[in-house]
Structure formats: C-alpha cells, structure tokens
TrEMBL record:
SUPFAM superfamilies in the record: PLP-dependent transferases
Entry's family note: Belongs to the class-III pyridoxal-phosphate-dependent aminotransferase family.
EC number from the UniProt entry: 2.6.1.13
Coiled-coil regions listed in the entry: none
Statement: the UniProt record of this protein carries the keyword rRNA-binding: no
Cofactor: pyridoxal 5'-phosphate
The entry's keywords: Aminotransferase, Pyridoxal phosphate, Transferase
Database matches in InterPro entries: Aminotrans_3, Class-III_PLP-dep_AT, Orn_aminotrans, PyrdxlP-dep_Trfase, PyrdxlP-dep_Trfase_major, PyrdxlP-dep_Trfase_small
Protein name (Swiss-Prot/TrEMBL): ornithine aminotransferase
Keyword Transferase recorded: yes
The organism of origin for this protein: Gangjinia marincola
Record pathway: Amino-acid biosynthesis; L-proline biosynthesis; L-glutamate 5-semialdehyde from L-ornithine: step 1/1
Amino acid sequence: MSVIDTITSNEAIALEEKYGAHNYHPLPVVLERGEGVYVWDVEGKRYFDFLSAYSAVNQGHCHPRIVGAMNEQAQKLTLTSRAFYNDVLGQYEKYATSYFGFDKLLPMNTGAEAVETAIKICRKWAYEKKGIPEEKAQIIVCENNFHGRTTTIISFSNDEGARKNFGPYTPGFVKVAYDDLQALEETLKENKNVAGFLVEPIQGEAGVYTPADDYMLKAKELCNKYDVLFIADEIQTGIARTGALLAVCGSCSCEGHCERQETYSRPDILILGKALSGGAYPVSAVLADNAIMNVIKPGQHGSTFGGNPVAGKVAMAALEVVKDEHLAQNARKLGELFRAEMNKYIENSGIVHLVRGRGLLNAIVINDTEDSSTAWDICMALKEHGLLAKPTHGNIIRFAPPLVMTKDKLLQCVQIITRTLKDFE
Ligand SMILES: *Cc1c(COP(=O)(O)O)cnc(C)c1O
C-alpha cells in the first residue's frame, strides 16, 4: 500500500502547494472517486459535480462503458505512433465522421492542440486554395475568447493573466466583438486576406456568454459570402452539453448528425475535445471535408499520441453513450427546468443578477464587482452543502453538471443552490 491510500485533504493540498507549479487556484477539496453526477473527497464526503471538468465529463464520472472500452484496449495495444497503422483508428474515424457528418477527421489529444491544428489547416487552405499571398493570412477571432493555452492561442486572448509576459505573440489574428455581426462583416469587407473566423458558439470561459439565437447562422452566412472558413470551437459546447449534439445545431435535438435543420450552421472546420472522451482520456479532433482537410499531406502535421488505439476506443464508447442515453435531450429538458427554477429565485434576489445559458451549460451572474470575493465565498458555501462549482471571471458562477443528471437530483441541487444563496442576501 502506498501513502496515497491514506492521505488527508490537508496533506494532499500541502503536497501540491510545495511540489507543484502554482498555475491553478483550486477550491480546497481533494477528490478521490467519482460516479455519474457524484464525486467523493478523501474524507468520504459526497458532492454533486457542477463543473464536470469544464464539460469533459458530460457522460458522468467513470462511465462503465467508457472505462470498460479503455481497460480492454489498454490490455491489448496502447500506442504505435502513426509510423504504423493500428486496427482501431480507421474504425474510429469512420464512426466519428459519420456521427458528425464530415468527410475526414484529424486526431489530436488536447483541446489546444486541436485548435492549433485548425489554425494550421485554415492557413494552408488560404494559401493553397483561396490564393492569399504568402504570410498574409488573417484569422478573425472574438473578444473575450478562450481557445486554450499555447503561445499562438494566448497571442489572441484578451485575458491579461493568460497573456502578460508570454510574448512575443504570434501575428495573423484580428479581433472583433462577440455576438456582433456588423463588426464581423466590416472586418470581412475591409480585409481581403481573411482566411477564417474562429468562434465559440457560447463563450464558456468568458462566463457562459450566450449570443443571439441567430448569431452562428448569420456568421456562417457571412463566412460563405466572403469565402472564409467558419471554424467552430465546440470543445466545451459540443457533444450534447447545450441540449443538441453540437451547439451549432441550434434548436435541433436529434441524437446524431442531420443536414436537414435550417438552424444548423455547419462549420467548415469543427473542433472537438473534452467530452469526446467522456473525461476518461485526452482525446481531441478536427473534422472537415476533403476539399479542406486534403491540404494536409504526410509529414506536415502530427502528434505521437494522436490517433492511438485507446483514444479511438474511448471516443467511440463516449459518443455511443451520448446517443444511447439521449444526453442531448436530457440536457435540453433539464436545462430549461434549471433556468426556470433559478429565474423564480432571482425574482426576489438581491445577490443574483441573472441566469443564462443553453442546455446544461449555465451560469449565474452575482450582483457584485468582478474583483469581489462573493462568488468565491458562495462556491465555498456550496461545497460545504455538497455541491462543487467554480467562479469564472470573478462574479460569475458556472453550473454544468454531468448530463446523466436526473430531474429529481437536479431539483435537489436547485435546493442546495438557492438555500446557499439565501445566506448571502
Ligand atoms: C477547454 C477549452 C479549450 C482547450 O482545451 P484543453 O484540452 O484544455 O487544451 C479550447 N477551447 C475551448 C472552447 C475550451 O473550453
């Protein structure tokens, strides 16, 4: 038996404090086990998980089908690199491309790597297909975006904490206001060298900032008009989280890909991560049709772990679970219930200003300044009452439980949240 088996919360926190880089500021809770919508700390206390690892654990903690697929493959073959073929990758690529309705998939591991991959594909397409002069390609991004932590990606962030003293920054990005079609069209009109528009259907990290219902559809139309690739970062919003398979599916709640919906703003490049593995393993992917994906030739991009057979098996199982357990519909239904219940509370609340979101990706905005500790204090009190959530941007609290949530449990959670909030009124 190792010392890990008997560690206390305080000991675990002290170890991280001493031996780990301080690049996070976690809530002081040390988790050792998870199942479905629940996690347990090392002292045995049970919590509802209302973060779901930033929406990676949509299918619930330690889903037996996903863990089973992972265990089985891990005992057979874990990694070959792409220097050789493996017997899983092709099957996974076939499954995922038909699931999401694209010709091809490029496998990576983390979300940021998939965003980097999309940027590279977009630039290459711009030079080789659109005819943009060498080195001149621009990609439009949005104010307050979050696309990951690499040097290129933080180059177009406007979060000072994420950027400061990490320069020099990668050029080739133009920022426009989010949810502002006029700003987007003006930039497209002015700038002949735009290759792509990279956007989150809902800005998760910015505080679940939810744009107008027709924003994605109209933005996509503008991209078509100006021959610019529409690149959707669905790493957080995708895979049933917002009550549809993808947030770009709009109001469609079918369980798989469909072309018919007039609300579907089909991306030219789709970026997935997080729940693509149900939180079991780092799996990300970029999907596109042949005309775009075929600009990448052997040797021009890659990853040692990308496309490994464990990732392929895990992702297939994770996607099957989403369909078989009707997680998109559940997220839609429970999301409506959650916002309705929160709105009832907000009517008579001085501390909560509003609730917003789609499906089970929601946030409440606290009536206090961004630099106040109120949201943090509320999260600490929620923890005491058995529910884990984390503030984002100071005065916003995101509520995103696993999508295997039930109505009864959700109402229990609403009770915990409203009772806790009352203490802060
Ligand atoms: C989490 C996230 C990323 C980055 O994913 P990592 O796996 O942390 O690299 C990128 N884009 C969005 C929208 C995200 O939510």
